[in-house]
Amino acid sequence: MMNCIRPAALFALALALPLTALAQDGSVAISAPADGAKLQAAADNRVTYEIVPGSKGDHSHLYVDGKEIAVLRELKGSAPLKTLAAGPHEVCVKVVNKNHTPIGVEKCVKVMVE
User: Fold this and answer.
1) In what order do the strands lie in the sheet with 87-96?
2) Shortest CA distance to 51 belongs to which of 73, 68, 67?
3) What pLDDT, in 10s, does the model give residues 32-42?
């Protein structure tokens, strides 16, 4: 009896997995700077991005070290990173809803500013 239940439970789980993946639609790509890039503090540093907001997303926000620095309304483009102090930084683009709440679709890169 136990053997019959296990395959059925596994089958139900297998059916649920694609639905979970579909629930988190949307994507963010950062083409520059690359993860691990070394940037110059005095340079005009920019993030180049492409966003697919998905069904729950409205627009995106740009973050440096967890602090919002810009609202991104374009689905593809670039935005200045402002002046970055020397040291390590994390740059993130996060898709948000109309209430400006992140929906879980994001991309982050770590950079080193010299």
Assistant:
1) 38-39, 102-113, 87-96, 59-64, 67-72
2) 73
3) 999 999 999 88
The two structure tokens encoding residue 73: 């309304």
Q: What is the Cβ-side half-sphere exposure of residue 32, based on CA atoms within 13 angstroms?
A: 11
Q: Which carries the bigger pLDDT value, residue 64 or residue 8?
A: 64
Report which residue type is found at 27: S
Its pTM stands at 0.76
Residues shown for the chain: 114
Residue with structure tokens 């988190």? 24
**In terms of C-beta density within 10 A (0-12 exposed, 13-18 middle, 19 or more buried), how is residue 96 classed?**
buried
Of 93, 84, 80, nearest to 112 (Cα)?
84
Residue 82, pLDDT score: 82
